[in-house]
Amino acid sequence: MTVLLQQILDGLTAGVLYAAIALSLVLVYRTSKLVNFAQGELATFGAFLTWQFHDWGLPLSVALPASVAVSFVAGALMERTLIRPLLESSNHLGLFIVCLGVLVTLLQVEAWIWGYQVKEMPNVAEGPPIALGPTMISRQNVVIIAACVLIAVALWFLFQRTRFGLAMRAASDNTPSANLLGLPVTATLTFSWGIAAVIGTLMASLVAPNQFLQPGMLLPVLLYSVAAATLGGLDSPVGAIVGGLVVGVVENLAGTYVPGIGQDFKQAVAFAIIMIVLLARPQGLFGSRTVVRV
After folding, report:
1. Transmembrane stretches, by residue range (predicted)?
2. What is the pLDDT along the chain (294 residues), one digit of tens a residue?
3. Domain membership flag for residue 83
């Protein structure tokens, strides 16, 4: 029983990361109707910036906000220069290719600047693990969970309690009507990409001590996060959180207890979740169903 509880706790801890990255995917999808497959590498690049600033002598309390600020600008510039022209021309294939191109380019740039040797990112929280009954959790993982909760609360407040958040919701629900009402649709697009990059950088920097900072660090995590967003619904922030936690627990339990899967084939669980959801409920558990009028 102790092993089972520990596996569930580890799965929830991993699921928090999947949920946070899934939230950034949902944020972009709601405004752009695009799954940004470069999100994981954008986050990894941000983590490299955090490491670099710290390596130059800045304390982590300064290095992390600095990399977050740079990431916001990078995400906003990506939307403005690469994504928006293709969105305006409805070039969906071009958007997909651009995202893959950014992913590959960032991989090569990271390898060129920092190499493939693993960088050691310091923990935000040091000290012995915390006992939760018969299970244990590291202090760094507690910080990661707290960060995800704060991100979720901040996004809820943004969408539900601010004028700009309401404009973002209106623009994502009905862009033509939002334009007619004079809402800042283009600004919401740029802001959503910037915030998505911020979420990715923050989470990547916090998990880097556990994940080993190197090019492609979050590629497997991106797969799980896409599965989480698909499960919960690509337009549902709540679904992203629930989906991330479910995927984290399921893949961890499957890797431990299902014969033939083990730790080496856990990624197949994410593919299985994506395929099952797309076949059984394409809009996800919490996503809105698309209605086509004829």
Report:
1. 12-29, 56-78, 90-114, 142-159, 180-206, 212-231, 238-258, 264-280
2. 678 888 888 889 999 999 999 999 999 998 888 999 999 999 999 999 999 999 999 999 999 999 999 999 999 999 999 998 988 887 888 999 999 999 999 999 999 999 999 999 998 888 888 888 888 888 999 999 999 999 999 988 988 888 888 887 777 777 777 777 777 778 888 999 999 999 999 999 999 998 889 999 999 899 899 989 998 888 888 899 999 999 999 888 887 777 766 666 777 777 788 888 888 888 888 877 654 444
3. yes
> Is-contact 242 194, C-beta < 8 A?
no
* Residue matched to tokens 């950088």: 201
Residue whose structure tokens are 């629930």? 242
Whether the CB-CB separation of 190 and 168 falls below 8 Å is answered with no
171 vs 154: CA distance, rounded Å: 19
Kind and range of the H or E run holding 132: strand 130-132
As to burial, measured by CB atoms within 10 angstroms (0-12 exposed, 13-18 middle, 19+ buried), residue 122 is: middle
In terms of residue numbers, what domain contains 93?
2-217
Query: How many CB atoms lie under 10 A from the CB of residue 2?
Result: 9
- Residue 34 CB neighbour total at 10 angstroms: 20
> The whole model's pTM is what?
0.91
Q: Does 69 map to a domain?
A: yes
DSSP code at position 80:
I
User: What does residue 46 show for φ and ψ, rounded to 5 degrees?
Assistant: -60, -40
In a domain, 291, yes or no: no
What does the angle CA 255 – CA 257 – CA 261 come to, to the nearest 5 degrees?
40
**Domain count across the chain:** 1
